[in-house]
User: Fold this.
Amino acid sequence: MEKSNPIVGIQLARNGERPLYSQLAQALKELIIKGELSSGSKIPPIRQLAGILGVNNSTVVQALEVLSREGLIYKHVGRGTFVAPSSRSQPPVEGGGHVYDFSSLAPATELFPVLDFKKALNRALDYYGGEALNYQPHLGYRPLREKMAALLGQEGISVSPERIMVISGSQQGIDISAKVLLEQGETVFLEEPTYPGSLLTFQGRGVRIINIPIRQSGLDFVELEKRLADFRPRLLFVMTRLQNPTGYSYTPEQKAHLLQLAYKYNFYILEDDYLSALDYRDYRSTDPPLKAMDRWDRVILLKSFSKVLMPGLRLGFVILPEGLQEDFLGAKYAADISSSGLMQRAFSFFLQDDSWEEHLKTIRREFRSRYQLVKKFLKEQSPLLYFWDPEGGLFFWVRLNRGGWSEDLAVLLRRRGVDIAPGSAFFAGKRQTPWFRLSFATGSKKDLERGLDLLKDGLQELQTGQDLDRIPQEEPEKRLF
Amino acid sequence: MEKSNPIVGIQLARNGERPLYSQLAQALKELIIKGELSSGSKIPPIRQLAGILGVNNSTVVQALEVLSREGLIYKHVGRGTFVAPSSRSQPPVEGGGHVYDFSSLAPATELFPVLDFKKALNRALDYYGGEALNYQPHLGYRPLREKMAALLGQEGISVSPERIMVISGSQQGIDISAKVLLEQGETVFLEEPTYPGSLLTFQGRGVRIINIPIRQSGLDFVELEKRLADFRPRLLFVMTRLQNPTGYSYTPEQKAHLLQLAYKYNFYILEDDYLSALDYRDYRSTDPPLKAMDRWDRVILLKSFSKVLMPGLRLGFVILPEGLQEDFLGAKYAADISSSGLMQRAFSFFLQDDSWEEHLKTIRREFRSRYQLVKKFLKEQSPLLYFWDPEGGLFFWVRLNRGGWSEDLAVLLRRRGVDIAPGSAFFAGKRQTPWFRLSFATGSKKDLERGLDLLKDGLQELQTGQDLDRIPQEEPEKRLF
Assistant:
């Protein structure tokens, strides 16, 4: 007798006592745990599954979401959904819950100044009424641009409010910069590794991407100059302070060098300043952004508050070089007409009183303490792990130092209720790397501690099943990528 | 003695009693009114002006903004800023104020349900706290997507919440659809005339644009079929209900025809449904959107509430066809990561009680009465003006029927404190047309009435100075464009 697909045998009770999706999730879970759906096997496509079972597509989607959260299945973009490895031997954590997400840069919700911001929102509505909810001036709400000019002034950037455009977060800034500066076939230079959202934008724009490695000592300037002469890019995208994902901060000399190159080879630098408020060095940081040293007007500065205030603000700022204002206004209009007038006004009120400074103190204290906790953990894991010390920010760039891929570690950790960001996400064309980004931004400190314990277990498990010679043992600096 | 530039003689008092920009605006105004800066002459570039006068660029910008609002100067994109014609003989309206903006589709602020929305915002913050201000699921907040599915169900569209993606307004929907569907060099078909924001997006994407005329009887299907065979587009962008700017609504037969063509020639239709709630016909409208008839899944429906609720909502919805979900999620991420979680939750609460239905009743009543007022006016102006009757919406598509260009009328009206939207804005390559869009969305009804009086005066003035034979007198239908 031919072995039939075990899914066909699933029975769902339609008496309404328990939602169909929940029954389906339970039934699939049992098949996986019993091994009838074996590790690595493909789950049929949603429509097919819905057809077999006689349920709506959405029922299937919800059931798969449950299994995915429990680490029993995983999605492979473009290939489908699969049963996670060793699901049988490794049942999910108690209750299928999620313990800690080391992959997320969404800051801990508990740290958001919700009450202060609520006050600011209500003030904005009371003061402006419907005006706050109508279309906005294309550059953005002027008092907010003035406040931003003042904040930038504190960082050594002298800029008029007319040159500051409000946008809906840094990602939009990257997207419209790509539109303004890059026609298809033109060239952009990126740091490697880099922020995945920038890869998404530049790949979607159909431009040529040239990657310049970030070493532990910073951007590889030898490589950069060689490539500049060959490719003549229009744009270089950099994060000069607490680079994502490496945490590297450029030295003043490196910044000066970069600006000279931008002048010499006539390209713009898109500088994403998204995390600079979080510097934990004991000496007061005196490093200004690249833009503060930009006497040739080559730098387009993006400033956002998603990580240091709240992602839900959905506001950011672009400092526009002379001559590009009209183009940026057009690209912003094409993107979403204007950013929320209510949020702009509320943020402006919020910046007006002490809330902002107090909030900065709070998050610096909290994240610095998390940073120290995780750093201590990473040191204890040496020589199993190797890491770069960012001296700030929300994450570490960590390497599996005894062989193994972070992508395998991610699968294995997910079953324990823990997520990491495998390094391949930060490269244009890598499928596996020993590096991963370990963020401590999200959740509570207690969950972070539990997460670290599980990470430790996961690392042990990875080592146990590991062919330690699979990756040649070189010096860390040489085998970065 | 050589005649010096009159601007050099401007004296500004730096005693701080009156802002520099305001003094500068006044001084320039006097030069214009005295005729020392003559009609049509170019204002020096901002930096040069700032240099001459020893003030900041921003001071000059603010001063020019004042003059621009008063209609004394105008900008010509790419060419500079000029003194408006006949400024001397036609001083600005009392106090330099603005009377009515017939060019704007931003609905009257007084009609926004500010208090109800404020309540919804506070409920969202009280209920969800920081979660409302964090990153959001990429498809959007699920309860809102469920409500949207229910609303679409009332229009005959059966769709699961998994196929509804929240976006930051219709314009973003057009922009990400262009990214997902069109590589550079591919072809998009547009209605002609069409919404300027779509032109901005498609031109910025570097794709080939083919325009299909909208006649008074609807889209020119003969032209469309001829072009389809030649160009094989990937996408057609349409507004099937109350098309912007013509106000035309497709008949059910035209919709069926369009769908058959989409199937036959294998293209997607991007349908922007932005105004359908505003139908003033006495019989209950039974026309569903194209999407309701879409059995081949060729339609990408955009739904927004900017015009019927508040532009400041910055929310819209895309109904995704099977197979495009992943691509749209990626493009949305690249655009702005996610739309405001707070606005999504507030809108969801707002839709929950009676506020939404009540608001719809209010704006239908108000805009219908404005529609009737403007229609009466336009009839009275016949045969000077010719117009299409949209039987709904917020604007009329109007033609100068005795010669003259709407672009000239716009300049002339601006001096009277009135703006119209000249037709050329709605065409990809026209600089002059006798058509213009006359919107009655904004401001108070009283201002609208004053605006109509000034429009009448402006029309008289235009006729007086007019060579009536400049445009050949054909039948309206034949000389649409």
In short: Chain A touches chain B through 62 residues (CB under 8 Å).
